[in-house]
Amino acid sequence: MNTKQTITAALVAFPLLVPLTWYALAYLPYVASIRTLATQGASSIQGANPLLQPLVLADQTPAQVRSYAMRQAYFSLVFENHRGSAFSWHAHNTLWYLASYLHFEDSEMLGLWAQCVFRCGHGLKEASLHYLHKDLRLLSEREAANLVAAAKSPVRYVPGSSANERRTDELLARLRAQK
After folding, report:
1. Which of 27, 112, 139, 161 is at 20 to 30 A from 33, Cα to Cα?
2. Under a CB-based contact definition with an 8 Å cutoff, are residues 67 and 95 in contact?
3. What is d(CA 122, CA 75) in angstroms, rounded to the nearest whole number?
4. Closest-CA residue to 113 (of 49, 167, 59)
5. Are 124 and 45 in contact (CB under 8 A)?
6. What is the percent of the chain with per-residue pLDDT over 70, rounded to a whole number?
7. From residue 80, how far is each of 71, 75, 77, 84 by CA, in Å?
8. Separation between Cα atoms, residue 6 and residue 12, nearest integer Å
9. Where are the domains of the chain?
10. Residue 49 has pLDDT above 80, yes or no
11. Residue 125, phi then psi, degrees to nearest 5
12. How far is the CA of 14 from the CAs of 1, 3, 17, 27, 34, in angstroms?
């Protein structure tokens, strides 16, 4: 192989090498942790109000659930301990979101969302106990909607606030419109 062929091969290989290196170093080491969080979240919502999943999907598309869940997982598993620039934050979030399609189904993303919605490890189960003083499995339709409504912005839509009540009404109306 002559010098020109070597340079051409390197130029062709380089665009493939960068994302593969990123994938191997910045995403793959966390797949098991993400899967564990998703499993914990799925088990925490198992047996909960059967309207919980439809409420979440009335509020967000599966792509939005995935995006939010992966952003929270990235923050908790990586960024919180190794802060970087704003560019790094956005680039990694986008890449984690895209790479998640290689390893996780939408149903697993719902579990991850449920586990990480109020920061990883502080999911719906913990929020239910904190805000409503009830186990997630004992929530009424409206109480479940309160929690899903609060997930959009826990400070702005804290359960019991007038903003949360308006958002809950909107969410329940969307759920009924989908039926």
Report:
1. 139
2. no
3. 13
4. 59
5. yes
6. 98
7. 12, 6, 7, 9
8. 10
9. 31-178
10. no
11. -60, -50
12. 18, 16, 5, 19, 29
Q: Which residues, 6 or more positions from 154, have their beta carbon under 8 angstroms from its beta carbon?
A: 118, 127
CATH superfamily of 31-178: Biosynthetic peptidoglycan transglycosylase-like (1.10.3810.10)
In this prediction the pTM is: 0.85
Q: How far is CA 70 from CA 4, 82, 122, 154, in A?
A: 42, 17, 15, 18
CB-count burial class (<10 Å; 0-12, 13-18, 19+) for 133: exposed
Q: What is the DSSP string of 46-66?
A: TTS-TTHHHHHHHHS-HHHHH
Q: Residue 143, Cα to own-chain centre: how many angstroms?
A: 21
160: left (phi over 0), alpha (psi -120 to 50) or beta: left
Give the pLDDT confidence of 83-126 residue by residue, as tens digits. Answer: 888 888 999 999 999 999 999 999 999 999 999 988 777 889 89
φ and ψ at residue 13, rounded to 5 degrees:
-75, -30
Give dist(CA 124, CA 144) in Å, integer.
9
Q: Which residues are CB-neighbours of 66 under 8 A, at least 6 positions away?
A: 97, 100, 104, 106, 109, 113
Residues 133-165 pLDDT 10s: 999 889 999 999 999 999 888 889 988 899 999
